Amino acid sequence: MEIRIERAKTLKPKPDQNHLGFGKYYTDHMFEIDWDKDQGGWHDARIIPYAPLQIDPATMVLHYAQETFEGLKAYRNPQGEVQLFRPEMNARRMQNSNKRLCMPYLSEEDFVEAVSKLVEVEQDWIPTAPETSLYIRPFMFASEPGVGVHPAVSYKFIIILTPVGNYYPEGVAPVKIWIEDEYVRAVKGGTGFTKCGGNYAGSLKAQEKAEEHGYTQVLWLDGNEKKYVEEVGSMNIMFLINDTVVTAPTEGTVLPGVTRDSMLTILRDWGYNVEERKLPVTELMEAARTGALKEAWGTGTAAVISPVGELYFKGEECVINDFKTGPLTQKLYDTLTGIQWGRLPDKFGWIKVL
Ligand code: COI
């Protein structure tokens, strides 16, 4: 893919690395490419100064939500090099999201090249303070103006970058999770396995409810029976029940997380029993009540590994591991972040040094 580069005339001041928050600052440039059916597909790949988009009020994404996105990170390793973590997995997941939403998609090679080129141009924005990184947000939307429901004939694929710290205000500390028994996130045959904006819009009502009750995130039950635990709003979730790690299978309603897959690979490599199975919420709460639930943690690109300190379900609150980060959660966090920031050997071949 040929990428034209137009440099910004003035550069923004860089934010204080110790107070980055999450998604508050954007870099000087962005990647953009268009897809038009009548022009034979993808054309005009470019890195240009970061700027607002001008779109027609009839732009189809604003009405029918044909939109998908991804999230990955760039890290500065101890040798000063820039590295990405499993970017090809994000490329493949976006392809699967786009297929479900009747959208065209970039090849794995072009996706990774676009991400790599933009990060290279913006490498001075990669923060180096502990637990900080450069979050990469590729996204794509139907850009055709039109009223009438059908797959659009034109699209924009864009990548923006934001230097980030921890996703949760708690930092790497246990979060409180609300298990939702009224609203649902995904049903069989729906879009649960995709990263599309609509999934997140539909989750806000329950998130608002959870926050009103003092909980950080929602844990969704399956949308068909409201019986099995699936995923949390911003991450997948895993439970250490006695000596077995249990997590929901990715069978169409759960997002196939890159961090989720990495954790399962590491756990199996360490010899843990890992079960990807439907876990009834009643079994989970019973395990929490009796102490069989030793630890719980969320996994995600933004959230990294986030310990879960408390579960709430239908009026019952259960504290996990005295609301402390458990030893396995800590070991997983140290191992994953060690590989991502280049402090530990890349045993599984997950790192792409630019
Ligand atoms: C990510 O983990 O990268 C996500 O996109 C989750 C989002 C809630 C920030």
UniProtKB/TrEMBL annotation:
NCBIfam families: ilvE_II, PRK13357.1. Its EC number is 2.6.1.42. GO terms for molecular function: branched-chain-amino-acid transaminase activity. It comes from Intestinibaculum porci. The gene is ilvK. It catalyses: L-leucine + 2-oxoglutarate = 4-methyl-2-oxopentanoate + L-glutamate; L-valine + 2-oxoglutarate = 3-methyl-2-oxobutanoate + L-glutamate; L-isoleucine + 2-oxoglutarate = (S)-3-methyl-2-oxopentanoate + L-glutamate. This is branched-chain-amino-acid transaminase. GO terms for biological process: isoleucine biosynthetic process; L-leucine biosynthetic process; L-valine biosynthetic process. It comes from the Bacteria. Its cofactor is pyridoxal 5'-phosphate. Coiled coil: none annotated. The modification N6-(pyridoxal phosphate)lysine is found at residue 195. It is an enzyme of class 2 (transferase). Pathway: Amino-acid biosynthesis; L-valine biosynthesis; L-valine from pyruvate: step 4/4; Amino-acid biosynthesis; L-isoleucine biosynthesis; L-isoleucine from 2-oxobutanoate: step 4/4; Amino-acid biosynthesis; L-leucine biosynthesis; L-leucine from 3-methyl-2-oxobutanoate: step 4/4. Belongs to the class-IV pyridoxal-phosphate-dependent aminotransferase family. Keywords: Amino-acid biosynthesis, Aminotransferase, Branched-chain amino acid biosynthesis, Pyridoxal phosphate, Transferase. Transmembrane segments: none annotated.
